[in-house]
C-alpha cells in the first residue's frame, strides 16, 4: 500500500527548511538540514537514534531555535518566531514521548490544544472524539492515568485541536503494540485525507514509508537521502540500515 | 519520594531523634496542661478562633509561595516584602481617608479603597520583582534565583524604610468592624470574622479561577511543562508574570487582613509572616494550592493554641512569647518527617 500519488511537482512547498544548523550548547545536532513538504503531502523523516529527527521538528515548531538557516512556511520566514506564535500559523507539534498534561483531564488537554484559537471548539472536539472514540469515553479522566496508547491518541488529538495546516508527529508509534500502531497509522492517513499535511518522524521506517508519499533519511544531523517513499523502501542502503534486512 | 530515604545514616538518625524528642516534649506538655485543667473551654475556643483568623492570613500568603513554586520551582523569599509593601502603602491611603472623614461617613467604601490600594501595590511590586530580579535568571541554576530572592527581600525592606521610615505606625481603626458576633455557639470579634470570611472568599475565587478559566488552565499547563505549553500557543512569560501578579494581589489582601488583626505596620513586618507562610506552604505540600490553604490554617491554629497547650503544662511563664518557636519547630519537623507536606505534589498546580 505504498503511496505514489505525490502532489504536483513544482508548486511552492508549504514548508521549506534551508541549510538549518541547530546546536545544543556546543554540540551541533543539525548540520545543514534542508527539506521541503508540499501541501497535502505525508512526508516522513527516518533515521536512527540521535540522528536529529526530533531536533528538526523542534526547530520547526520554535521550541528550539536554529543558529542559522531558514524555515519558510507558506512563503514566510518563521525561524525567529517564539513557539507560541508559530502554532498560530497552523503548525502543530505532537512531541516525542506524548507529553500530555498529566494532571489535567482529557477534555482539558484538548482545550489546551485549541489555546491558540479563540473560536468555539465544540466541532473540533467532536471531530477528535470521532477519530479517537476511546477519548470520548475518557473525557473526564486525568491524562496521566491513561495507558500509553491512549496518551498517544490524546497527544495527536490535542495537536489536531489547533486546526493545523501541517501536523508534526514525533514517533507516534513509540511503545505501542503492533495493533495499536496500525490503528495510529490508519488515523494518520485519515487525517491527511481530511486535508492536513503531515511531517512524520519515525523509527519504524517500514510503517512510515508505507504511510508517506515522500521521505528523507537523516544521519548524524545531515540529510542522507531524499526520494519517494516507494523508492526509499526499495533502496538497498535503506533496507539494510533501517528496515532490518541484511 | 527522595531516594536517600531508605538509608538510615548518621545524620538521618540524629534528625529523627531530634524530631522525635520535640514531638515527645510537645505531647507530654499537652498532657500536663490538659491534666492540670489550666484553661477553660471558652479560652480554648477563643484561642482556636484567633488561630483560624491568623491562619487565614498565612494561607493567603502561602498561596503566593506555592503558585510561584508550582511554575518556576523557586521559593520567592521576597514574598513577605510584597505583603509589607501593600499593607504599608495602604496605611497612607487609610490615614488620608480617615483625615478626610471618609472612614466615618462611608466606612465600607473606605475599607474597599484601602484594600484595593494594598492589593494593587503588592501586585505591582510582585510584577516588578519578576521582571527585574527573576526573569533575567530564567534557566540559571536553582541556587541563583534563591540568593537573588534574599537580596530582593532586603532591598525591598530597606527601600520601604527609606520611603516610609523605620517607626511602627498604628493603622487608623476601622470602627466599622468593632464589636463581636456569634456564629451559633462560637463567638468572635467582627474583625476576626471579616478576616476569615474574606480569606475564604478569596481562596474560593482563586480555586475557581485556576480550574475553570482559560488563564487558569494555562497556568496549570505551564506548571506541568513549559515547552509543551508554548507549543499550545501559551505565552509562557506572560503566564509567569500573571502568576506573580496573582500572588501579589493575595499578599496585598493578606496585608490588610493582617493589619485588621494587629493594627500596625512596620518596614520589617513582612519578615516573620513571610517565613511562617513559607512554612505553611511546605507543611501543605509546596506547589499544591489546597495544601497551602490547609497548611496556613494548621499553622495559625498551632501557633495560637500551641504555646498554651504545649508549654503551660511545664509551668513556663508567658508562653505566648514563644509562639514563633512553635512555627519554626513545625518547619523543622515537616522537613524531617514529611518533606512533601500534607498533599505532596500531585493534584492541580
Ligand atoms: N536537550 C539536549 N541537550 C543536549 N543534546 C541534545 C539534546 N537533545 C538532543 N540532543 C542531541 O542532539 C542529537 C539529535 O537528537 P534528537 O533528539 O534530535 O535525535 P532523534 O533523531 O530524535 O533520536 P531518537 O530517535 O532517539 O529520538 C543527539 O546527538 C542528541 O544527543
Ligand atoms: Mg527523537
Would you kindly provide a written description of the structure presented here, covering whatever features stand out?
- The complex is a heterodimer of chains A (246) and B (349).
- Chain A contains ten helices and ten strands.
- Chain A is an alpha/beta fold and 246 residues long.
- Chain A has a domain at 15-95 and 164-242: P-loop containing nucleotide triphosphate hydrolases (Rossmann fold), CATH 3.40.50.300.
- In chain A, the strands form two sheets. Chain A has a six-stranded mixed β-sheet, sandwiched between helices. In chain A, strands 2-1-4-5 form a four-stranded antiparallel β-sheet, covered by helices on one side.
- In chain A, a hairpin with a 2-residue loop joins strand 1 (15-24) and strand 2.
- In chain A, helix 3 (106-113) runs parallel beside helix 6.
- Chain A is globular.
- The model of chain A has no long low-confidence stretch (mean pLDDT 89).
- With 349 residues, chain B is mainly α.
- Chain B has one domain (46-292).
- Chain B has a two-stranded antiparallel ribbon with strand order 1-4. In chain B, strands 2-3 form a two-stranded antiparallel ribbon.
- Chain B is globular, with a radius of gyration of 21 Å.
- In chain B, 47% of the residues are buried.
- The mean pLDDT of chain B is 86.
- The chains are: A alpha/beta (246), B mainly alpha (349).
- The interface between A and B is medium-sized, with 25 and 20 residues.
- Adenosine-5'-triphosphate (ATP) binds at residues 24, 27, 29, 47, 49-55, 96, 203 of chain A.
Quick summary:
The complex is a heterodimer of chains A (246) and B (349). Chain A contains 10 helices and 10 strands.
Can you give the mean pLDDT of chain A? 89
**Strand percent estimate of chain B:** under 5%
CATH superfamily of the domain at 15-95 and 164-242 in chain A: P-loop containing nucleotide triphosphate hydrolases
Give the C-alpha Rg of chain B. Answer: 21 Å
CATH fold-level label of the domain at 15-95 and 164-242 in chain A: Rossmann fold
Oligomer: heterodimer
Q: How many beta-strand segments of chain B? A: 4
Using the alpha-carbon principal axes, give the shape of chain B.
globular
Strand content of chain A: 25-35%
Distance separating the two termini of chain B? 18 Å
End-to-end span of chain A in angstroms?
23 Å
Order of SSEs of chain A, N→C?
Answer: EEEHEEHEHHHHEHEHEEHH
Question: Helix proportion of residues of chain B, in percent?
Answer: over 70%
Written as H for each helix and E for each strand, in order along the chain, the element string of chain B is HHHHHHEEEHHHHEHHH
Structural class of chain A: alpha/beta
Bound small molecules, by name, code or SMILES, are: adenosine-5'-triphosphate, magnesium ion
Please describe the biggest sheet of chain B, giving its number of strands, its sense, and whether it closes into a barrel.
Answer: 2 strands, antiparallel
Amino acid at each position: 500500500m505504498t503511496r505514489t500519488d505525490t502532489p504536483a511537482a513544482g508548486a511552492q512547498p508549504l514548508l521549506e527548511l534551508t541549510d538549518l544548523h541547530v546546536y545544543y550548547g556546543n554540540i551541533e545536532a543539525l548540520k545543514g538540514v534542508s527539506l521541503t513538504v508540499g501541501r497535502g503531502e505525508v512526508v516522513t523523516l527516518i533515521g536512527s537514534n540521535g540522528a536529529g529527527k526530533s531536533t528538526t521538528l523542534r526547530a520547526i515548531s520554535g521550541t528550539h531555535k536554529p543558529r542559522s538557516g531558514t524555515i519558510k512556511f507558506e512563503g514566510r520566514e518563521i525561524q525567529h518566531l517564539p513557539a507560541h506564535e508559530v502554532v498560530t500559523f497552523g503548525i502543530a507539534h505532537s512531541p516525542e514521548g506524548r507529553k500530555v498534561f498529566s494532571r489535567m483531564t482529557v477534555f482539558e488537554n484538548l482545550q489546551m490544544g485549541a489555546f491558540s484559537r479563540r473560536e468555539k471548539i465544540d466541532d473540533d472536539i467532536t471531530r477528535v472524539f470521532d477519530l479517537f472514540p476511546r477519548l470520548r469515553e475518557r473525557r473526564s479522566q486525568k491524562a496521566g492515568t491513561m495507558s500509553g496508547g491512549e496518551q498517544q491518541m490524546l497527544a495527536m488529538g490535542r495537536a489536531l485541536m489547533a486546526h493545523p495546516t501541517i501536523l508534526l508527529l514525533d514517533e507516534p508509534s513509540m511503545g505501542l503494540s503492533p495493533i495499536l500502531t496500525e490503528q495510529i497509522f490508519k488515523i494518520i492517513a485519515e487525517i491527511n485525507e481530511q486535508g492536513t499535511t503531515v511531517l512524520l518522524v519515525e523509527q519504524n521506517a517500514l510503517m512510515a514509508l508505507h504511510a508517506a508519499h515522500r521521505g528523507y533519511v537523516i544521519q548524524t544531523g545531515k540529510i542522507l537521502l531524499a526520494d519517494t517513499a516507494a523508492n526509499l523502501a526499495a533502496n538497498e542502503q535503506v533496507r539494510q540500515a533501517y528496515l532490518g534486512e541484511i | 519520594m527522595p531516594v536517600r530515604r531508605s538509608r538510615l545514616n548518621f545524620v538521618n538518625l540524629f534528625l529523627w531523634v531530634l524530631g522525635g524528642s520535640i514531638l515527645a516534649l510537645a505531647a507530654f506538655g499537652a498532657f500536663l496542661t490538659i491534666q492540670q485543667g489550666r484553661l477553660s473551654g471558652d479560652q480554648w475556643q477563643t484561642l482556636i478562633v484567633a488561630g483560624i483568623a491568623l491562619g487565614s492570613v498565612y494561607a493567603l500568603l502561602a498561596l503566593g509561595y506555592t503558585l510561584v513554586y508550582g511554575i518556576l520551582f523557586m521559593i520567592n523569599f521576597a514574598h513577605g516584602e510584597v505583603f509589607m509593601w501593600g499593607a504599608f502603602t495602604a496605611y497612607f491611603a487609610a490615614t488620608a481617608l480617615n483625615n478626610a472623614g471618609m472612614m466615618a461617613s462611608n466606612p465600607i467604601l473606605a475599607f474597599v479603597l484601602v484594600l484595593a490600594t494594598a492589593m494593587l501595590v503588592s501586585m505591582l511590586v510582585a510584577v516588578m520583582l519578576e521582571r527585574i530580579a527573576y526573569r533575567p535568571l530564567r534557566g540559571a541554576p536553582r541556587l541563583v534565583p534563591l540568593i537573588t530572592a534574599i537580596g530582593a527581600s532586603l532591598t525591598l525592606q530597606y527601600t520601604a524604610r527609606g520611603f516610609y521610615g523605620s517607626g511602627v505606625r498604628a493603622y487608623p481603626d476601622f470602627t466599622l468592624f468593632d464589636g463581636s458576633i456569634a456564629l451559633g455557639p462560637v463567638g468572635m470579634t467582627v474583625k476576626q470574622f471579616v478576616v476569615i470570611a474574606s480569606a475564604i472568599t478569596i481562596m474560593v475565587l482563586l480555586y475557581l479561577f485556576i480550574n475553570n478559566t482559560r488563564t487558569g488552565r494555562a497556568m496549570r499547563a505551564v506548571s506541568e511543562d513549559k515547552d509543551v505549553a508554548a507549543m499550545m500557543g501559551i505565552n509562557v512569560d506572560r503566564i509567569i508574570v500573571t502568576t506573580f501578579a496573582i500572588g501579589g494581589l493575595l499578599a496585598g489582601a493578606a496585608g490588610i487582613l493582617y493589619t485588621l488583626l494587629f493594627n500596625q505596620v512596620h518596614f520589617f513586618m513582612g519578615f516573620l509572616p513571610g517565613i511562617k507562610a513559607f512554612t505553611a506552604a511546605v507543611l501543605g505540600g509546596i506547589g499544591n494550592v489546597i495544601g497551602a490553604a490547609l497548611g496556613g490554617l494548621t499553622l495559625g491554629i498551632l501557633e495560637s493554641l500551641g504555646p498554651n497547650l504545649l508549654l503551660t503544662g511545664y509551668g513556663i511563664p508567658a508562653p505566648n512569647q514563644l509562639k514563633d518557636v512553635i512555627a519554626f519547630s513545625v518547619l523543622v519537623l515537616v522537613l524531617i518527617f514529611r518533606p512533601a507536606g500534607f498533599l505532596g505534589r500531585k493534584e492541580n498546580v
